[in-house]
Amino acid sequence: MKKRLVIATLLVIVSLSFFGVPSPDQGRVLAATTITQNNQLAVEAKADQLIQTGRSLIGKATYSNSEYKPTSPYKFSCATFLMYIFGENGVDLATYNEDYMMQQGTYVARNQLQKGDLLFFNSKNTSNVPDHVAMYIGDNKVIHMADSKQNIVISDLDSKPYYKDNYVSARRVLPSLLPSNPATKGDNIVELSYNLMNKVTMGNVNDEKAMKFTGTGFVNYVYKKNGVSIGSTTIKEQMNQGATVSRANLKKGDLIFFSNAIGSSTPGFVGIYAGDHRIVIPNSNGILTRVLFVDYYDQRFLTAKRVFTEKSAPVVVPPTVSATSADKLVVFATSLTSKVKFGYVYDEKSLTFTSAGFTYYVYKNQGIDLKSKLASQQAKIGIAVQKANLQKGDLILFSTDNKGTNIKQTGIYIGGNQFVSLSTSGSILKESLNSDWAKKNYVSARRGL
Q1: Torsion of Cα atoms, 392 then 429 then 342 then 410, to 10°
Q2: Strand order through the sheet with 132-138
Q3: What is the pTM of this model?
Q4: Would you state the pLDDT for residue 14?
């Protein structure tokens, strides 16, 4: 998609937002933030998820440079195709502009490509601004939305002169767009912001019980939930909090203030810095994610504030789950399908459990004590794991009221972006984390293996 089309869209939509923030039509994206530490296994697992999602869309999506349709029948440009598959797997590119994508992550030489890297091409050969993007999948191949004749295809980079003659650059966005491992407070603030995207109503009032907020009220709520007291829902007062941070030194969780008009020094709206040039913007249209490269934000940037400090702590990397232990746990959990019953008791003889009782029983069978049969207490075991870093055997915690805050139900991650849980209907369900229920109720995850 051409940059000028994106800018034109932004300018048209500005008038629709009472916060004065543009809202171009972008797809659902999940939590993803800049990393400080991550292991290669997590990166490879995430790349495999991206490739699997991309492959699953072959033959199901058609090319469109004017319409983005993230539901069947899918319509994508080369950039929105990648934005979609990354977003579906918890990695936020926050843009459908190839040039902006090429400014994220880190540069990687063509002879050092790895799965998940983004490759950029320019068929016009008039500048280094790309007009096509593809994702490397290994073995010298890329997957991409090629054109209106081919749609989504897998291509060998040696199959046509195009891939050599028009190559511009490559960027590695894994792990740079993944959460830190272990998560920082900034990670947790950003992740909660993403998790609340489809669970809050934006407007002119602040009502935490009803999950209704103004833009500044949303910011105040997210930080309060992470133990940071901003203490105000007034934008001028929020801009007076914390320490001023230069744009070059932004970190995840910093507050960024913008004016509504170019040249004005009066703050009009606030965003949360999500790492690697990305921002979370609460406005009348919901919770949006964008990149600071967009002219609208670049020209209206006022200042940034850091309202918390990360506590120094020993580096504790969540343990890599033993493949054998994780597989055994998943096999045992799925073997109980049609054998267990739901009930407000814990009875191993009759296999009658609540959802948390079920997970307690499964883990107990593998020699792991979850300490409690209550979901809210199971949320304290092990080590916190970001959604983007889930591994087989991780415990997933859900709400049941579509708000994603109070933990009431548990599930077990089984790989492939799927989990199993015992439902109130009395059966073990295997469900995708991208299902409507899971998206609305996901709270957090823990690793106890």
Answers
A1: 40
A2: 106-107, 167-172, 118-121, 132-138, 141-145, 152-156
A3: 0.70
A4: 32
